[in-house]
Amino acid sequence: MIDWVDPWRGTADHGGPVTPSESHTPTIAAVATAPGVGAVSLIRVSGPQAVAIADRVTGGRASRAEPRQAVRCRILDAAGATLDDGLMTVFRGPRSFTGEDAVEFAGHGGMLVTREVLSRFLACGAIPAGPGEFTQRAFFNGKLDLTQAEGVMDLISAQTSLALRAAREQMEGTIGRRTIEARDEILGVLAHVEAYIDFPDEDIDPDTGRALCDRLDRVSAAIDRLLATADQGRILREGVRTVIFGEPNVGKSSLLNRLLGYERAIVSEIAGTTRDTIEETVNLGGIPLRLIDTAGVRQAGDRIEEEGIRRTVRQIESADLLLEVADAGLPRPLLRPADVPEDTRHLLILNKADLGEHADWSGIEAVRISCQLDQGFDRLEAVIREALHLGSGEWGDHAVAINARHQACLARARQSLAAASAFLEPPADTELAAIDLREALDALGEVVGRVDTEDLLGVIFSSFCIGK
Ligand SMILES: Nc1nc2c(c(=O)[nH]1)N(C=O)[C@@H](CNc1ccc(C(=O)N[C@@H](CCC(=O)O)C(=O)O)cc1)CN2
Ligand SMILES: Nc1nc2c(ncn2[C@@H]2O[C@H](COP(=O)(O)OP(=O)(O)OP(=O)(O)O)[C@@H](O)[C@H]2O)c(=O)[nH]1
Ligand SMILES: [Mg+2]
């Protein structure tokens, strides 16, 4: 067998620009694996010149490679010396993640070797990919809709099993599909309405009007079901803002430390120990809790404490869940340490139960715990889950959870639908109804990225990591 001769070895013109492509889409490259030392690192290249560039880098192996099959190859520097030895996979567009020609090289995971290999791809004509640019290209090439692209991002950043489940569902296109179903139904109604506009002498007959309104009602209900998952979505992505508050020295920081499982906050017998808010996330059976320990609320002793108390009050106002802590051994405070918003879920916790309970607390509904003896925490966890309606596997069926962007678009669509329905009631105004229906369509289109709002897309994709 004759060994294949590397045509680039020993020649002088490596690294120069490759033949300019017909399209002006640049070919991008990035390290797709996490920075740092690992067993293997992956370099991704995508764009019209991906194969040509990979040919230069590997001495012609890419164009001869069977698509989607890993081949062993070496990455060569300009002088033909080996930079790394690994596996290359060539994808021919549109059968690739991005839909473009793409090449992946899995090399040794060292930081320096990976950087040198990437530099070699860049020297041979690729440009560094921006954050999220591979996924953005996949989106532009119709490989995923915008909700799926966001799902990819959610999947990577998911911190709990429930968040992961919701991200998977989104990546598989559930939100996009439901949005498109709603869109198609509205499109059908719009077609009817437009038909009447074309014959201005003809009034919409009441039966048809009612049937169209019924269809819109069903679409509205479907959108409402999606909108109802917004709270869940926010909680899964950002965590439940759980604010621990109460008078000084009752054991708020001790509670934070217990829930976290390590000594995060300073605990002391001196009242006024915590001056600023402290924030940490714990995983409560799949639900991320963003615990916020605050400065004890009382008449402030100095200006710093005063500011700490102001911050506590602000935290209380923006909480999803309030854990109010009191000392079981002390009389019940006459005044609430701070005003609690009516609609915020709120639990009273009596700490230091080990010291006995003051008569004031008898008959008062509270979770009794002792941070000192580590008692009452199973019950506390159960009560928190219940307060968040997580008791009986309630989230089981709702793996779908929309994000704030979807929520804003869907809410707009919902409003336009309501307006359109009103215009379809006799005496119908089909032209105005049509305008609102088109607005609803636009809003739904925005959910899946069917309208080209460049600014919006820029914001979404720039929050991705490089190489994704
Ligand atoms: N090596 C590697 N692993 C990876 C990725 C990648 O890009 N490269 N992914 C990146 O996120 C994820 C997998 N996602 C992918 C999605 C689509 C295609 C793809 O080639 N799609 C073609 C062919 C489909 C087929 O034949 O089944 C297509 O859609 O046309 C590849 C990876 C996770 N693992
Ligand atoms: N006996 C007993 N003491 C406790 C318990 N929990 C906390 N303490 C003690 O109570 C004191 C105050 O605890 P911290 O956790 O600092 O209280 P805090 O509410 O954060 O106080 P500030 O930050 O000053 O508002 C410390 O000396 C703790 O050791 C408990 O369950 N039982
Ligand atoms: Mg404290």
From TrEMBL:
Annotated residues for binding of Mg(2+): S253, T274
Swiss-Prot/TrEMBL cofactor(s): K(+)
InterPro entries, per the entry: G_TrmE, GTP-bd, GTP-bd_TrmE_N, GTPase_MnmE, MnmE_dom2, MnmE_helical, P-loop_NTPase, Small_GTP-bd
Predominant localisation class: cytoplasm
Database matches in Gene3D superfamilies: P-loop containing nucleotide triphosphate hydrolases, Probable tRNA modification gtpase trme, domain 1, tRNA modification GTPase MnmE domain 2
Sequence positions that bind K(+): N249, S268, I270, T273
Domain TrmE-type G: 239-389
Annotated region (Disordered), positions in chain: 1-24
Record Pfam families: MMR_HSR1 (PF01926), MnmE_helical (PF12631), TrmE_N (PF10396)
Co-factor binding comment: Binds 1 potassium ion per subunit.
Record function comment: Exhibits a very high intrinsic GTPase hydrolysis rate. Involved in the addition of a carboxymethylaminomethyl (cmnm) group at the wobble position (U34) of certain tRNAs, forming tRNA-cmnm(5)s(2)U34.
UniProt subunit comment: Homodimer. Heterotetramer of two MnmE and two MnmG subunits.
Name the record gives this protein: tRNA modification GTPase MnmE
Organism in which the protein naturally occurs: Luteolibacter ambystomatis
